[in-house]
Each structure stands twice: as structure tokens, then as C-alpha cells.
């Protein structure tokens, strides 16, 4: 991967909406959806949903840190999840719908932990987002990739106005 680009893996419930939302952010150069941090190799969607594989529906976010910071991406991510919900986002329930931040760069840990601490100040209930190193990630089936672009009326737990907000969001901390 090009040295200038970084990656982070975000689980936020159903990956269709989370991927669409994050793909709208200036500085995010690529997104795809897959299954992360589970106990099986190359799982299928059906296995993830029904076979207790331990995988979370996850979005791989590749971004240019000169255009958008990890802090800013996390702030936007928090805006479209219920960070106190365990194994549930919107109408979706199950361990595959848990929230998680999976990192590949250990230098990101302090940023993530500080971000979670700031987020906790806004909630009485404990933050339920798991923060772990990425153990594994398997691309989801092709029909899941860019699902809401292919199916604009498809189900999504994220309100439509949030997609517009992501398109307009600008990380001013880098100016």
C-alpha cells in the first residue's frame, strides 16, 4: 500500500450503510465491506449470520491522513452508531452487528482510546465499542460491495440526512 495512505476497520452494525456513509467523507479514498476478527477463515454471509463465527460486519476504510484525520473519521463514525448498544444497531441484532474499531497501526491506539474517553463523557451507559488489533478480515461477497449504490432503496439503519452530512464534512484540523 502507498505509504501516504492509512487504514482503519470500523464495525457499525449492518455494513451497507456504514460503508456508504464513510465512502462520502473527503479524504477517504477507498472502502469495502467484509467480516473481521472472527474464528473462521473465508466465511460467507450465511455463516456469519447463522453459525456463530465471531465475525463482525466491518468496513475497511483507506484514507489519506493529509486530507482527513483518524480523529475526524471516528467522530463521524460515532455519529451513526449507538455506541452503548451491545450486539445491536438499528433493527439488526446479533454479534455480527457489534460495534468495533480494529486497528493495524499500533500508533493509532492512543488516538482511538482518547476518542473513546471523550465519547464516554456524552453518555451515562458505558461505551460498548470494542477496540482491538485487526486479527483477520475477509472481503464480503460482491453483492454486498457498494450495496446501497446498487440498491438505493435498500435497508439502512442510518438516516439519509447523515449521508449528506458526511459529504459536506471537512476536517478543519488539518488546515
Please explain how this structure is put together:
This protein has 175 residues and is of the alpha+beta class. It has one domain: Peptide Methionine Sulfoxide Reductase, Chain A (2-Layer Sandwich), CATH 3.30.1060. The chain is 28% helix and 23% strand. It has helices at residues 15-23, 45-50, 70-78, 109-120, 147-150, 160-168; strands spanning 6-12, 28-36, 56-63, 88-89, 92-93, 99-103, 130-133, 137-139. The strands form two sheets. The protein has a six-stranded mixed β-sheet with strand order 7-6-1-3-2-8, with helices on one face. A two-stranded antiparallel sheet has the order 4-5. Helix 3 runs parallel beside helix 4. It is globular and about 45 Å long. The mean pLDDT is 95.
Helix residue percentage: 25-40%
Overall shape? globular
Radius of gyration (Å): 15 Å
What order do the strands of the largest sheet run in, or round the barrel if closed?
Answer: 7-6-1-3-2-8
**How far do the termini sit from each other?**
25 Å
Share in β-strands: 15-25%
Category by helix and strand content: alpha+beta
Tell me what the CATH architecture is: 2-Layer Sandwich
Low-confidence stretches: none
**Total domain modules:** 1
Could you give me the name of the CATH homologous superfamily? Peptide methionine sulphoxide reductase MsrA
Overall average pLDDT = 95
Largest sheet: 6 strands, mixed
SSE arrangement, N to C:
EHEHEHEEEHEEHH
CATH topology: Peptide Methionine Sulfoxide Reductase, Chain A
Q: Which CATH first-tier class would you pick?
A: Alpha Beta
